[in-house]
Amino acid sequence: MIQIFFFLLFFLTPAFVFGQGSPLKKATFRPQWKPQAQFAGFYVAKEKGFYKSHGIELTLLQGGPAFSSSEFLADGKADFVTMWLSNAIQMRASGHGIINIGQIIQRSALMLVAKKSRGINKLEDINGKKAGLWGQDFQIQPMALFKKYNLQVTVIPQSFSVNLFLRDGVDVVSAMWYNEYHTLLNAGLNPDELTPFFFQDYGLNFPEDGIYVLEKTFNKDPALSCAFVKATIEGWSYAFAHPDEALDVILEYMSQANVPVNRVHQKWMLNRMKDLIFPLDNSGRIGMLESSDYQRVAGELKESGLIKEIPDYSSFFIGCEIRAEQ
User: Fold this and answer.
1) How does strand 130-133 pair with strand 172-176?
2) Residue 15 confidence (pLDDT) above 70
3) Confidence (pLDDT) at 11
4) CATH superfamily, domain at 23-107+207-316
5) CA distance 63 to 58
6) Do the beta carbons of residue 35 and residue 259 sit within 8 Å?
7) What is the pTM of this model?
8) What average pLDDT score do residues 57-72 get?
9) Residue 266 in contact with residue 304, Cβ under 8 Å?
10) Which residues share a beta bridge with 83?
11) Who contacts 98 (Cβ-Cβ below 8 Å, separation ≥6)?
12) How is domain 110-202 classified at the architecture level of CATH?
């Protein structure tokens, strides 16, 4: 019932159609990483005035590795943040009152990549090989995959570089489809030389970036939270419809943050984000967190011993149930 209430609140109340003279509500948002096309919808929504049109005076905080988005949210330094679903479930299970109000990415971008020249053409060929894996949160899916298919793999800690793989120091490398995979292609490897393993193809789809807010913040002003989600999705829709303009916006934010700019790489990232954001079934629903996806991720977290109990889905996801057409 509560989700139906907020669905009606979102679509039917005039609070979301701000006329002239209506006061803007101040809010802050922090992505989990530095400016790049992974967050294009937010930057475009800001520059095109979509947040203001929904009554929000938004301050964009710069993300990065120094402090996590979860820390900013828990400490009240940001009203809205993006986080991976797996991280958010762990926070909720540990007693933090955070909720998901819009699941942006519907498909897992995390993947494993191998070279065919190393004799890896199918999943079973990974057995007995060395695999580069990132830190704990990034290891949940790979370790579940190895367990599910009874693969004995030597895990090698991986930095945020693919150089060890390029030098054949590991047989398998962790990558994000929209980022490191393209880096491998730019390094001179051809797609037909690589064997990609997408977790979604093995029953381990973990939706990643979602929009999170403290429960107390949401309860104080549900309309503000839903307006933020709606404006953000308008930003994504505009970015996909006007990719060159969106890239201009992204590159400007990257330059301001002193992040190295590569337009070709950012174009690849933006295109992959479109693939990841729109559901596989082409239902056109953006912003939804499906119960089946939630239970899959939470179940693996519990199986891995990272949480003791699975938080209730209906309390975790209070989505504004945004629907948009591709």
Assistant:
1) parallel
2) no
3) 43
4) Periplasmic binding protein-like II (3.40.190.10)
5) 15
6) yes
7) 0.87
8) 88
9) no
10) 210
11) 70, 73, 74, 88, 91, 92, 212, 213, 214, 215
12) 3-Layer(aba) Sandwich (3.40)
Average pLDDT, integer, range 108-112: 95
Sign of dihedral through CA atoms 273, 276, 277, 280? Answer: positive
**Residue-level pLDDT at 125:** 98
Distance between CA atoms of 205 and 187, rounded to whole angstroms? 28
SS (H, E, C) 189-227: CCHHHEEEEEHHHHCCCCCCEEEEEEHHHHHHCHHHHHH
Q: Which two tokens stand for residue 124?
A: 């079973």
Ordered DSSP codes for 265-287:
HHHHHHHHHHHHHS-TT-----B
Model confidence at 17, in pLDDT bands (50, 70, 90)?
Answer: very low
Say what the pLDDT of residue 8 is.
Answer: 40
Q: In whole angstroms, give the CA distance from residue 296 to residue 150.
A: 19
Q: Please state the separation of Cα 218 from the chain's center in Å.
A: 21
Cα–Cα separations (whole angstroms), residue 26 to 35, 55, 326: 21, 9, 30
Task: Quickly state the pLDDT bin for 4 (edges 50, 70, 90).
Answer: very low
Comparing 33-37, 88-92, 282-286, 298-302, which segment has the lowest mean pLDDT? 282-286
Each domain of the chain, given as residue ranges in start order, spans 23-107+207-316, 110-202
Token pair recorded at residue 257: 């943050």
Tokens describing residue 7: 């669905």
